[in-house]
Amino acid sequence: MRAAGPVGFDLDLTLIDSRPAIMAAWSAVAAETGTPIDLAEVDTRMGIKLEDEAAYWFPAGQVEAASQAYRRHYARLGPQLTTALPGARESIAAVRRAGERAVIVTAKHPVSVGPSLAAAGLTADEVYTHVHGPEKAAVLARIGAAVYAGDTPADMAAAAAAGALGVGVPTGSFTAAALAQAGAGVVLGSLACFPGWFASYHASISG
Fold this sequence. Notes:
Elements (H helix, E strand, L loop, with lengths): L6 E3 L6 E2 L1 H15 L5 H6 L5 H5 L8 H19 L1 E2 L3 H10 L4 E4 L4 H11 L5 E3 L5 H10 L3 E4 L2 H10 L2 E4 L7 H6 L4 E2 L6 H13 L1
Parallel strand pairs: 1-4, 1-6, 4-5, 6-7, 7-8
Antiparallel strand pairs: 2-3
Helix pairs in contact: 1-4, 4-6, 5-10, 7-8
């Protein structure tokens, strides 16, 4: 694993609490289309691409239209329902303080990322959107990321595949044990613990 380099962050349920907005948008899609959508089931897959989630509820020929409807509702609901998770701003600041770049690597579509970051009051040095699983690994490897923080097993697997240290936070739908089993090198209670951990980690590799 790389000792130093950019630090990547997942977005949904790692840096931001987007669950209320996501659930509200899917509820609106269900009402608009008349298609029943089990929000509890949606919650178990939080972090995958929108189109992949839509495919669980709509036939192939309707996935794109359903995804567009979701984005329309999310753009309306997201700004009022999205907040930064504890430690998000401080974690990005800690990375920059150490002289590294804070990079967001997310499955979220570009049209949803901007409003989400603005609502949460967050900025990043670089943002890579609409990537999941192995696609995240490819981005992390390309930018030479040393660390990747995320809330899903797929995030931890992507970090490991890219040669980055996976830092798991169980602030989404997955337990600390599930993140560790997926390859997390470190599991923190939340990003509120990240600044202190990163300061110690960076000092150890710089000393």
